[in-house]
Every structure is written in structure tokens, then in C-alpha cells.
Amino acid sequence: xxxxxxxxxxxxxxxxxxxxxxxxxxxxxxxxxxxxxxxxxxxxxxxxxxxxxxxxxxxxxxxxxxxxxxxxxxxxxxxxxxxxxxxxxxxxxxxxxxxxxxxxxxxxxxxxxxxxxxxxxxxxxxxxxxxxxxxxxxxxxxxxxxxxxxxxxxxxxxxxxxxxxxxxxxxxxxxxxxxxxxxxxxxxxxxxxxxxxxxxxxxxxxxxxxxxxxxxxxxxxxxxxxxxxxxxxxxxxxxxxxxxxxxxxxxxxxxxxxxxxxxxxxxxxxxxxxxxxxxxxxxxxxxxxxx
Length: 291
Description:
Number of helices: 7
Distance between the termini: 82 Å
Shape: elongated
Helix content: 25-40%
Strand content: 15-25%
Order of helices and strands: HHHHHHHEEEEEEEEEEE
Number of domains: 2
Structural class: alpha+beta
Strand order of the largest sheet: 1-11-10-9
Largest sheet: 4 strands, antiparallel
């Protein structure tokens, strides 16, 4: 009898077949087509990157079990990044970060790290939606999966620390951010707070397209990139009177020049001392910062 060497493709197919059928039995809204997309996409990439390493069979099998659970629980609606980006941080991890970065982790550490990634990603999904969307917007900064906990601590610290009310007495600082590098055709339409220090900007022509911004003192506010599902935050407490005219804004009776701003279309005020505005005919955002 002639023996046949099992190829990596055959091995992956055999591992996934049982999980595909089990998923159909376990989950009411099982999506076999999406599971297959994970098998032929990220799972195959992970297997290829780990080929011939001792723990490859166990790691890929563990990965596919997490994929099965994520699809069955509706945590993983896509197997690759769509036009509007990642759906959530767990999806980013399982589709992109794990296949690319997990093989860099030492043998024997990969399965426990997979479990940790799942627990942290699923935990974020149980928090207010803006937290997961904010982390997802920063996910590209995750360069080492072994450091995922410290990445989350560092990323969330600026938005979870207590926010003090501003004095609104001046002097005011002004910065301008151009959204074109984020999206060529993005045209700001509406602004809203998604958290005390996170602003969501909606595209005027494509309401499903949004850009996030993290408000930070010292003229260090930064764009978070294209995102979706940030939600809305109801700012509480007294806010100063604000009046816009072409080229300037009056905040609490103090006039603040705003270069090149014509016909303010929308603005939002955060009680920690920020006013963010967009114009009717510009791709820029104007950020006014109070002490």
C-alpha cells in the first residue's frame, strides 16, 4: 500500500469540517459561508505562517474554535476589513493581528495568548459601544500580541480618566485638522460627542461614514481614522454661550479668531474645554481649546 503525505491544506480542511458541522448544530444563526471565508483566509494564513512548527495543529484548531464561537455569537460579521473598516476589536485581532503576529510568539505561549485575546476582545464588546470602537480605531498601533494588555491600558487611559470642567476664560488655543488624509472625499456634516473626550464626525453625503477624534489638551487632539458605531454621549453640566461668525467665534464673551472658517455648519462643545466646528464648504475641523 502506498502512503500519502497529508498536505497543510488537507489538514486544515479536516480540522474545519467538524467545527463547521458543529456550528450548524449549536447556533441558530450559523453562517457556514462566513466560517469558510475564515478557513480559506485568516486560518490558512495562520497555518502557512506556522507551517512545520510543533504547535501548529493545536493553535490553528484553537483559532478555528474561537472563530466558530465568534460567528455563532454574531461577534464576527466579516472575514476581512470592509470599506468602513473593522466591526470591532475582536474581529481585527482574529482577522488581521493573529495570523500576522501570533507566529512571532514562542511555542507553548500561543494557545494561552489566543484565549487572552478572546477574553479581552469579548470583554470590550460588553462595555459601552464607544469604548470598543475607540480601541478598534487605534488597533493598528498593536505591534506585539504579547503586549495586548498593556496596549489596551495605554490606549484607554486618556479616555477613562476623570474629566474636569474648563474655566472658559481664555486664553484659547486653536488648531485645525484636515480630514482629507483620512478619506479623500470626506465632507463633515454633523458632529457629536461619543464620550467626554471623543468626537464623532459624520460625512455629509454618506451618513454611514464617520471619523473619530480624541480631544487632548495642549493642542494634542488627534484623529482616530474612519470608524462606525461610536454612539452618542449626552454631555451634562453648564456650557458657555457660543456664537459663530465668519472667521471667528465668541465663547463666553471672548472673541477667538478662526482662520479661514466661513459659514460654520455644525459644532459640538465638551465641558472639559473643547469646541469643535466644521464649515459648510471645507474638509477641515477647527478645535478651540480652553484652559
